[in-house]
Amino acid sequence: MKITPGKYLYNDENGALCGPGDNFVLPLWEYIEMNLQAQSIDESELISLFDITPTALNNWKKGTREISKDKLVVLCNMFGVTLDEMIEREFNDDYQYEYLYGLKKYSEEKKYKSFSTRDLEWLFERINEAVWYFEYYPLGYIPLDIGPDDPEGFPDKHYIGDDEVKYYCETLDINISYSTKTNNAYIKSVSYNELKKIARQLWDEWKEDAINHITAKADDKYKRIVLLSENIEFFKKYIENNTTLKNEYLAYWIKLKESNLKFDEDNLMAKVLLANDAMVEKNGKSDINATHDLYKIIMKHDINKEDK
Questions:
Q1: Which pLDDT tens digit goes with each residue over 42-52?
Q2: In the chain, which residues fall in CATH 1.10.260?
Q3: CATH topology of domain 26-88
Q4: Cβ(268)–Cβ(154) under 8 Å?
Q5: Quick check: 38 pLDDT over 80?
Q6: What 3-state class would DSSP assign to 184?
Q7: Least confident of 22-31, 67-76, 220-229
Q8: 245 Cβ contact partners less than 8 Å away, ≥ 6 residues apart
Q9: What pTM value is reported for the model?
Protein backbone atom coordinates (compact mmCIF):
# COMPACT_ATOMS: atom_id res chain seq x y z
CA MET A 1 0.00 0.00 0.00
CA LYS A 2 1.39 3.44 -0.93
CA ILE A 3 1.09 5.82 1.96
CA THR A 4 -0.40 9.21 1.05
CA PRO A 5 -0.63 11.41 4.14
CA GLY A 6 -3.60 13.54 3.24
CA LYS A 7 -4.67 14.47 -0.25
CA TYR A 8 -4.30 18.24 -0.13
CA LEU A 9 -0.63 18.73 0.67
CA TYR A 10 1.85 20.87 -1.18
CA ASN A 11 5.44 22.06 -0.92
CA ASP A 12 5.93 25.76 -0.26
CA GLU A 13 8.70 27.88 -1.82
CA ASN A 14 11.16 26.54 0.75
CA GLY A 15 10.23 22.93 0.05
CA ALA A 16 8.40 22.44 3.36
CA LEU A 17 5.24 20.33 3.38
CA CYS A 18 2.09 22.34 4.02
CA GLY A 19 -1.55 21.48 4.62
CA PRO A 20 -4.55 23.00 2.85
CA GLY A 21 -4.81 26.08 5.11
CA ASP A 22 -7.66 27.66 7.05
CA ASN A 23 -9.48 28.95 3.95
CA PHE A 24 -9.53 25.58 2.24
CA VAL A 25 -12.97 24.35 1.15
CA LEU A 26 -13.49 20.77 0.00
CA PRO A 27 -15.05 20.22 -3.41
CA LEU A 28 -18.75 19.47 -2.90
CA TRP A 29 -18.64 15.86 -4.04
CA GLU A 30 -15.68 15.08 -1.78
CA TYR A 31 -17.63 16.51 1.15
CA ILE A 32 -20.57 14.29 0.22
CA GLU A 33 -18.27 11.31 -0.22
CA MET A 34 -16.76 11.85 3.24
CA ASN A 35 -20.22 11.80 4.80
CA LEU A 36 -21.21 8.72 2.83
CA GLN A 37 -18.13 6.85 3.99
CA ALA A 38 -18.52 7.99 7.60
CA GLN A 39 -22.08 6.62 7.63
CA SER A 40 -21.30 3.53 5.53
CA ILE A 41 -23.74 4.56 2.79
CA ASP A 42 -22.98 3.03 -0.61
CA GLU A 43 -23.13 5.16 -3.77
CA SER A 44 -25.58 2.65 -5.26
CA GLU A 45 -28.05 3.73 -2.58
CA LEU A 46 -27.93 7.27 -3.96
CA ILE A 47 -28.67 6.01 -7.46
CA SER A 48 -31.70 4.18 -6.11
CA LEU A 49 -32.81 7.02 -3.80
CA PHE A 50 -32.69 9.73 -6.47
CA ASP A 51 -33.61 7.44 -9.39
CA ILE A 52 -30.62 8.58 -11.44
CA THR A 53 -28.21 6.77 -13.77
CA PRO A 54 -24.60 5.88 -12.91
CA THR A 55 -23.58 8.38 -15.59
CA ALA A 56 -25.45 11.16 -13.77
CA LEU A 57 -23.67 10.20 -10.54
CA ASN A 58 -20.30 10.33 -12.31
CA ASN A 59 -21.17 13.80 -13.60
CA TRP A 60 -21.79 14.89 -9.99
CA LYS A 61 -18.39 13.52 -9.06
CA LYS A 62 -16.65 15.36 -11.88
CA GLY A 63 -18.61 18.55 -11.22
CA THR A 64 -19.91 18.67 -14.77
CA ARG A 65 -23.51 18.47 -13.56
CA GLU A 66 -24.92 20.52 -10.70
CA ILE A 67 -26.75 18.77 -7.88
CA SER A 68 -30.21 20.29 -7.55
CA LYS A 69 -31.13 22.04 -4.30
CA ASP A 70 -33.91 19.57 -3.45
CA LYS A 71 -31.42 16.68 -3.65
CA LEU A 72 -28.90 18.62 -1.54
CA VAL A 73 -31.59 19.07 1.13
CA VAL A 74 -32.19 15.31 1.16
CA LEU A 75 -28.45 14.72 1.54
CA CYS A 76 -28.32 17.26 4.37
CA ASN A 77 -31.01 15.34 6.22
CA MET A 78 -29.11 12.09 5.69
CA PHE A 79 -25.89 13.60 7.06
CA GLY A 80 -27.47 15.55 9.92
CA VAL A 81 -26.27 18.96 8.70
CA THR A 82 -28.02 22.12 7.53
CA LEU A 83 -27.78 23.40 3.96
CA ASP A 84 -25.59 26.27 5.20
CA GLU A 85 -23.27 23.76 6.88
CA MET A 86 -23.03 21.81 3.64
CA ILE A 87 -22.24 24.99 1.69
CA GLU A 88 -19.51 25.81 4.24
CA ARG A 89 -18.42 22.14 4.14
CA GLU A 90 -18.68 21.90 7.90
CA PHE A 91 -18.04 18.41 9.16
CA ASN A 92 -18.10 17.67 12.86
CA ASP A 93 -16.82 14.13 12.62
CA ASP A 94 -13.13 13.38 13.29
CA TYR A 95 -13.07 11.80 9.83
CA GLN A 96 -12.42 15.24 8.33
CA TYR A 97 -8.99 15.53 9.97
CA GLU A 98 -8.08 12.02 8.91
CA TYR A 99 -9.10 12.87 5.35
CA LEU A 100 -6.78 15.90 5.35
CA TYR A 101 -3.93 14.57 7.52
CA GLY A 102 -4.09 10.79 6.96
CA LEU A 103 -2.22 9.97 10.18
CA LYS A 104 -4.06 6.75 11.00
CA LYS A 105 -2.59 5.19 7.88
CA TYR A 106 0.82 5.19 9.53
CA SER A 107 -0.29 3.13 12.53
CA GLU A 108 -1.91 0.60 10.19
CA GLU A 109 1.08 0.24 7.86
CA LYS A 110 3.67 -2.36 8.88
CA LYS A 111 5.86 -2.27 5.76
CA TYR A 112 8.00 0.57 7.06
CA LYS A 113 10.26 0.72 4.01
CA SER A 114 7.27 1.92 2.00
CA PHE A 115 7.43 5.25 3.84
CA SER A 116 8.82 7.92 1.54
CA THR A 117 10.75 10.98 2.72
CA ARG A 118 7.57 13.00 2.16
CA ASP A 119 5.57 10.60 4.34
CA LEU A 120 8.05 10.79 7.20
CA GLU A 121 8.39 14.57 6.98
CA TRP A 122 4.62 14.97 7.21
CA LEU A 123 4.30 12.50 10.10
CA PHE A 124 7.05 14.09 12.17
CA GLU A 125 5.81 17.62 11.50
CA ARG A 126 2.45 16.58 12.93
CA ILE A 127 4.13 14.86 15.91
CA ASN A 128 6.12 18.02 16.67
CA GLU A 129 2.96 20.10 16.35
CA ALA A 130 1.08 17.75 18.69
CA VAL A 131 3.86 17.91 21.30
CA TRP A 132 3.80 21.71 21.08
CA TYR A 133 0.00 21.83 21.36
CA PHE A 134 -0.14 19.49 24.35
CA GLU A 135 2.42 21.45 26.34
CA TYR A 136 0.62 24.73 25.74
CA TYR A 137 -2.87 23.26 26.18
CA PRO A 138 -3.15 24.28 29.88
CA LEU A 139 -2.75 27.90 28.76
CA GLY A 140 -5.29 27.52 25.97
CA TYR A 141 -3.16 29.27 23.35
CA ILE A 142 0.17 29.13 21.57
CA PRO A 143 2.27 32.32 21.26
CA LEU A 144 3.12 33.34 17.70
CA ASP A 145 6.44 34.69 16.51
CA ILE A 146 5.84 38.29 15.45
CA GLY A 147 7.62 39.18 12.24
CA PRO A 148 9.14 42.59 11.39
CA ASP A 149 6.51 43.18 8.69
CA ASP A 150 3.54 42.54 11.00
CA PRO A 151 1.44 45.63 11.84
CA GLU A 152 1.60 47.26 15.26
CA GLY A 153 -0.60 45.44 17.75
CA PHE A 154 -0.47 42.21 15.76
CA PRO A 155 -1.83 39.41 17.99
CA ASP A 156 0.95 37.46 19.68
CA LYS A 157 -1.01 34.27 20.28
CA HIS A 158 -3.56 32.01 18.68
CA TYR A 159 -5.96 29.68 20.40
CA ILE A 160 -5.59 25.93 20.20
CA GLY A 161 -8.59 24.19 18.66
CA ASP A 162 -10.01 21.45 20.90
CA ASP A 163 -11.04 19.40 17.86
CA GLU A 164 -7.49 19.26 16.49
CA VAL A 165 -6.04 18.39 19.89
CA LYS A 166 -8.63 15.62 20.22
CA TYR A 167 -7.65 14.26 16.80
CA TYR A 168 -3.97 14.22 17.74
CA CYS A 169 -4.77 12.43 21.01
CA GLU A 170 -6.73 9.77 19.16
CA THR A 171 -4.21 9.19 16.35
CA LEU A 172 -0.73 9.94 17.72
CA ASP A 173 0.89 8.26 20.72
CA ILE A 174 2.16 11.18 22.80
CA ASN A 175 3.34 10.62 26.36
CA ILE A 176 2.88 13.26 29.07
CA SER A 177 4.90 14.00 32.21
CA TYR A 178 3.53 16.64 34.56
CA SER A 179 3.84 17.87 38.12
CA THR A 180 1.14 19.06 40.49
CA LYS A 181 1.80 20.65 43.86
CA THR A 182 1.58 17.23 45.49
CA ASN A 183 3.19 14.75 43.07
CA ASN A 184 4.73 13.98 39.68
CA ALA A 185 2.81 11.90 37.14
CA TYR A 186 3.35 10.20 33.80
CA ILE A 187 0.73 9.08 31.26
CA LYS A 188 1.56 6.96 28.23
CA SER A 189 -0.41 7.77 25.07
CA VAL A 190 -2.48 10.44 26.75
CA SER A 191 -6.17 10.51 25.83
CA TYR A 192 -8.14 13.67 25.11
CA ASN A 193 -10.12 13.44 28.35
CA GLU A 194 -6.93 12.87 30.37
CA LEU A 195 -5.26 15.86 28.71
CA LYS A 196 -8.28 18.06 29.48
CA LYS A 197 -8.16 17.08 33.16
CA ILE A 198 -4.41 17.70 33.33
CA ALA A 199 -4.80 21.09 31.64
CA ARG A 200 -7.53 22.13 34.08
CA GLN A 201 -5.51 21.03 37.11
CA LEU A 202 -2.27 22.65 35.98
CA TRP A 203 -4.00 25.90 35.17
CA ASP A 204 -5.75 25.97 38.55
CA GLU A 205 -2.51 25.29 40.40
CA TRP A 206 0.13 27.11 38.38
CA LYS A 207 -1.77 29.71 36.26
CA GLU A 208 0.52 31.23 33.58
CA ASP A 209 3.40 29.11 34.88
CA ALA A 210 1.58 25.90 33.89
CA ILE A 211 3.76 25.36 30.81
CA ASN A 212 6.79 24.80 33.07
CA HIS A 213 5.05 21.83 34.71
CA ILE A 214 4.15 19.69 31.71
CA THR A 215 6.31 17.90 29.13
CA ALA A 216 5.02 16.07 26.06
CA LYS A 217 7.11 13.54 24.16
CA ALA A 218 6.49 11.26 21.18
CA ASP A 219 6.27 7.58 22.01
CA ASP A 220 9.23 5.29 21.24
CA LYS A 221 7.20 3.64 18.49
CA TYR A 222 8.14 6.56 16.24
CA LYS A 223 11.85 5.81 16.73
CA ARG A 224 11.02 2.31 15.54
CA ILE A 225 9.13 3.60 12.50
CA VAL A 226 11.86 5.96 11.32
CA LEU A 227 14.70 3.50 11.93
CA LEU A 228 12.94 0.57 10.27
CA SER A 229 12.13 2.77 7.29
CA GLU A 230 15.92 2.93 6.67
CA ASN A 231 15.25 6.21 4.88
CA ILE A 232 18.68 7.86 5.00
CA GLU A 233 17.54 11.04 3.21
CA PHE A 234 14.96 11.80 5.89
CA PHE A 235 16.97 10.47 8.84
CA LYS A 236 20.05 12.57 8.07
CA LYS A 237 18.03 15.80 8.01
CA TYR A 238 16.00 14.77 11.05
CA ILE A 239 19.00 14.00 13.30
CA GLU A 240 20.85 17.12 12.19
CA ASN A 241 17.82 19.15 13.29
CA ASN A 242 17.19 17.12 16.48
CA THR A 243 20.66 16.47 17.85
CA THR A 244 19.41 16.11 21.44
CA LEU A 245 17.74 12.84 20.38
CA LYS A 246 20.82 11.25 18.79
CA ASN A 247 21.77 9.10 21.81
CA GLU A 248 18.18 7.89 22.23
CA TYR A 249 18.06 6.84 18.58
CA LEU A 250 21.43 5.11 18.83
CA ALA A 251 20.21 3.12 21.84
CA TYR A 252 17.11 2.11 19.92
CA TRP A 253 19.21 1.24 16.86
CA ILE A 254 21.30 -1.14 19.00
CA LYS A 255 18.11 -2.70 20.38
CA LEU A 256 16.73 -3.30 16.88
CA LYS A 257 20.08 -4.63 15.61
CA GLU A 258 20.29 -7.16 18.44
CA SER A 259 16.85 -8.54 17.60
CA ASN A 260 17.25 -8.53 13.80
CA LEU A 261 20.66 -8.73 12.12
CA LYS A 262 19.13 -7.95 8.72
CA PHE A 263 17.98 -4.54 9.97
CA ASP A 264 20.17 -1.77 8.51
CA GLU A 265 22.58 -4.35 7.08
CA ASP A 266 25.11 -1.73 5.98
CA ASN A 267 24.78 0.21 9.28
CA LEU A 268 23.88 3.39 7.38
CA MET A 269 21.49 4.63 10.06
CA ALA A 270 24.14 4.09 12.74
CA LYS A 271 26.69 5.95 10.63
CA VAL A 272 24.38 8.96 10.44
CA LEU A 273 24.10 8.93 14.23
CA LEU A 274 27.82 8.49 14.85
CA ALA A 275 28.61 11.22 12.31
CA ASN A 276 26.50 13.51 14.48
CA ASP A 277 28.52 12.52 17.59
CA ALA A 278 25.97 10.14 19.06
CA MET A 279 27.28 8.17 22.02
CA VAL A 280 26.39 4.80 23.49
CA GLU A 281 24.96 5.39 26.96
CA LYS A 282 25.24 3.14 30.00
CA ASN A 283 23.54 3.92 33.29
CA GLY A 284 22.42 7.24 31.87
CA LYS A 285 25.94 8.40 30.97
CA SER A 286 27.88 8.49 27.69
CA ASP A 287 30.29 5.56 27.48
CA ILE A 288 33.33 6.34 25.30
CA ASN A 289 34.64 2.78 25.31
CA ALA A 290 31.30 1.28 24.29
CA THR A 291 31.01 3.87 21.52
CA HIS A 292 34.52 3.01 20.26
CA ASP A 293 33.58 -0.68 20.29
CA LEU A 294 30.56 0.09 18.11
CA TYR A 295 32.82 2.02 15.69
CA LYS A 296 35.11 -1.03 15.47
CA ILE A 297 32.21 -3.40 14.76
CA ILE A 298 30.94 -1.17 11.94
CA MET A 299 34.44 -0.73 10.46
CA LYS A 300 35.05 -4.47 10.63
CA HIS A 301 31.75 -5.10 8.82
CA ASP A 302 32.75 -2.66 6.05
CA ILE A 303 36.20 -4.26 5.64
CA ASN A 304 34.77 -7.79 5.49
CA LYS A 305 32.23 -6.63 2.91
CA GLU A 306 34.97 -5.16 0.72
CA ASP A 307 37.00 -8.37 0.95
CA LYS A 308 34.06 -10.35 -0.39
A1: 889 989 999 99
A2: 26-88
A3: 434 Repressor (Amino-terminal Domain) (1.10.260)
A4: no
A5: no
A6: strand
A7: 22-31
A8: 239
A9: 0.77
